[in-house]
Specification:
- The chain is built from 5 helices and 7 strands; from the N terminus they run E-H-E-E-E-H-E-H-E-H-H-E.
- The protein has 171 residues and is an alpha+beta fold.
């Protein structure tokens, strides 16, 4: 597998295989894994310096390559890249990563490179989340209160178990 640092424009190759439809993460670095030139994995990593960490999101391995181990090798490489100080501003920081994928959760729980930090066994309150998003928009140039996105927005309410992990690196 070859791993490339790419622009967000490559997300279009992987978007149909991702389970959420969210805006692109701000200030993210994007990575793509290829096998013989074929795009197989994607990951975005954002700074989260207020938590003294990075945040990884949008991990996708195309269906034809799932279960072959390329996604976990790809994820580990990108996490180690950031832990070693090659990420944004050269910070040597751990990375936070959340997933609801049962096999990936099992892998992360078995790995000594990862520590379980949180788990939510059911979805959050979508209405409460939507209200928080709407309040955050007040006073911004483009106010979305009353728009369709505000009425249907928010995260949660999906009854999906989500676990959060922290990459602490190879020991």
């Amino acid at each position: 597998m070859d791993i490339w640092k790419v622009t967000g424009s490559y997300w279009g190759i992987f978007k149909e295989h991702y389970y959420l439809d969210l805006p692109m993460p701000p200030a993210a670095e994007y990575f793509m894994g290829t096998v013989n030139g074929e795009p197989v994995s994607h990951l975005a990593v954002c700074p989260m310096f207020t938590a003294h960490a990075y945040r990884a999101t949008r991990l996708v391995t195309v269906p034809e390559w799932q279960g072959a181990g390329v996604g976990t090798k790809f994820l580990t490489y990108v996490m180690e890249y950031h832990k070693s100080g090659y990420g944004r501003r050269g910070h040597k920081l751990p990375t936070i990563f959340h997933t609801s994928h049962p096999q990936l959760i099992a892998y992360l729980n078995r790995s000594s490179n990862w520590v379980l930090k949180s788990q939510q066994m059911y979805g959050g309150n979508k209405k409460k989340s939507g209200g928080s998003i709407a309040r955050a928009q007040i006073g911004k140039k483009k106010n979305t209160i009353g728009s369709k996105s505000e009425k249907s927005g928010g995260y949660g309410g999906h009854f999906r178990a989500v676990q959060g992990f922290k990459y602490i690196g190879k020991r």
